[in-house]
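Q: C-alpha cells for this one, please.
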Amino acid sequence: MFILKNDIGEYIKSLKKSLGLTLMQLEKKSNVSNSYISQLENGHFKPSPDVLNRLSKALQTDFFDLMVRAGYMSVQSKEDSLNKNFVPNMINQLLKLVFEDLPNNPKEEESKTNGQH
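A: Here is the predicted structure, written as C-alpha cells:
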C-alpha cells in the first residue's frame, strides 16, 4: 500500500493524544470517520482542506498549520494570509493587472479594430 511522505498524519495523532482523545471521540467531535482518521494518521492519504478544517476545530489547532503540514500551502503563504493587509493588497494587485490589459478608451480601440481612425 502507498504511504505518503508527510507529517500531517503523525501531527494529527500527536494532537489527538495530547488532548487525550480516542479515535471514536475525535470522530464525534470532527464528524470525520474513525477509519478515515486512522488511515490519515498512518499516512495512507492526504486529507482534503474540508477535513482539515473539521479536524482543526476538533483538535483546537490552527487550520493554516494543518494546511501547511498537509502541503497545501507554504509557511510564507500562511503568514501572508494572516496579514491583515494581505487581501486588500492582493485585490489591488489583481485590479492593476486587469486594468493594464484594458484599452484606455474602449471606443478608440474599437475604431482601430474596424479600420477607422
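A few notes: The domain at 8-74 is CATH 1.10.260.40 (434 Repressor (Amino-terminal Domain)). Residues 1-5 have pLDDT under 50 and may be disordered.
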